[in-house]
Design a protein that fits this description.
single chain, 413 residues, alpha+beta, Heat Shock Protein 90, 3 domains, 5-stranded mixed sheet, 12 helices, rod-shaped, transmembrane, nucleotide-binding
């Protein structure tokens, strides 16, 4: 009974928290309309049926002649009012509960209405409120047993069965309330898990950008040192032959051009990332020329690597080679984690002007083992960010019975 969970949580969060004074829902959901209609019809229908039975000279619910005529009429009218009040039981629960509690001292016709009210209190109020109300209802049931003796039951049986039905309604209401709170807690945990995953992804991107910036620092230092060396040579030998001066100038121009490109890459990374922390710069990073050594290391670790390199490593720009090396390194690491014992094929191709292509393939094992090597689960996200910052792209996924990682990096002519 009650509103659906999304509406309930949005319109009445204080009820879930156990606040007895929390605001009621302003609107009924479709489910609320159905439940309220059913409660209203059941409460009103049973009230009318019981009242008509009590007006009969030979009633079946109470002992004949035990109830005066005026009390039967009073019970019927008051119980009809209580049954109509079930239609607004959520908004005016406190007033309706107090009214029905007074009726329970003498009313037979309001029995089902009392059970519905107890159930509603169990759903929408904390346990202390429910326990206090049920205790008063048990006291009222003791008075009712003496005022309205039933036809086929003794006073003890009437008192006992009344208490059993009230306890059952209260238990059902607490069960519904606990289930709703459990669903809300599950939803909160799912939302927190999604937020934490988004945070981990953002942190992985920032760390990848920062690491790229540190790598660029070493490259820029190398190129600027070349500029300084050749400029110094021209300064100390102004009378050198024209051929040497032209050669040095060409080297200076080429190094300056490369330094500017690397500087743009660094600035692009730092604009979207966080400032670089105060750490010692790392040593120069490997490029495509180090791929055979990387393959040998993987083979020594038990991975059957088949390496195919199309272009000459020395012809590939350093920045592109570094990014390609990191992509292949992470791809081999993933294969070692998730597909141990399988053969891995690494193919590098392309040409200047067309770009550099990387493809890593490995069969998917029939039984996927739990990774023996711990990881954060964001390695591929960092690689995709690296490829994007380099002007390329990266994709990965299952094709037939193989896991395929494909990347493309720009390679200017």
């Amino acid at each position: 009974m009650g509103t659906s969970l999304p509406e309930y949580r949005r319109l009445w969060p204080s009820a879930l928290a156990g606040d007895p004074a929390g605001p009621m829902p302003a609107r009924r959901s479709t489910r609320d309309w159905g439940v309220d209609t059913l409660c209203f019809l059941l409460g009103l229908g049973l009230t009318v049926w019981v009242t008509l039975d009590l007006l009969n000279p030979e009633p079946t619910l109470v002992r004949p002649g035990a109830t005066p005529y005026w009390l039967v009429l009073t019970d019927g009218v008051a119980s009809v009012i209580a049954a109509v009040g079930l239609w607004w039981r959520r908004r005016f629960l406190a007033g309706l509960a107090a009214y029905v509690l007074l009726l329970s001292f003498f009313s037979v016709a309001a029995g089902l209405t009392l059970l519905i009210v107890i159930f509603t209190i169990g759903v929408h109020r904390r346990f202390a409120v429910l326990a206090g109300y049920v205790a008063l209802a048990v006291l009222a049931n003791g008075v009712f047993t003496m005022v309205r003796p039933e036809a086929d039951l003794s006073d003890g049986e009437t008192f006992w069965w009344g208490n059993v039905m009230m306890m059952s309604a209260a238990s059902w209401g607490m069960l519904v309330r606990a289930r709703r709170q459990l669903i809300v807690s599950w939803r909160d945990r799912a939302e927190r898990a999604e937020s934490e995953q988004r945070l981990r992804i953002a942190q992985a991107r920032v760390l990848e950008r920062t690491r790229i910036a540190r790598e660029m620092h070493d490259v820029l230092a190398h190129r600027i040192s070349l500029l300084s060396l050749h400029a110094g040579a021209l300064e100390f030998r102004p009378s050198a032959p024209p051929e040497e001066i032209a050669g040095a100038a060409a080297v200076i121009r080429s190094s300056a051009h490369q330094a500017l490109q690397d500087l743009r890459a660094v600035i692009g990374v730092l604009r979207t990332g966080q400032p670089e922390d105060e750490q010692t710069p790392e040593r120069p990073q490997p490029t495509l020329s180090a791929l055979p050594m990387l393959a040998d290391e993987s083979r020594a670790a038990g991975v059957n690597v088949r390496l195919e390199i199309g272009p000459a490593p020395d012809n590939v720009p350093a920045a592109t080679g570094r990014a390609a090396y990191r992509i292949i390194q992470e791809g081999l690491t993933n294969a070692r984690k998730h597909a141990p014992g399988t053969a891995v094929r690494v193919a590098v191709g392309g040409a200047a002007g067309d770009g550099l292509t990387i493809e890593i393939r490995n069969p998917i094992p029939v039984l996927v083992p739990a990774p023996a090597i711990p990881g954060t689960g964001v390695g591929l996200i960092g690689l995709a960010e690296r490829a994007l910052l380099a002007g390329g792209w990266l994709s990965h996924g299952r094709i037939d019975d193989e896991f395929v990682l494909t990347a493309w990096l720009p390679w200017q002519a």
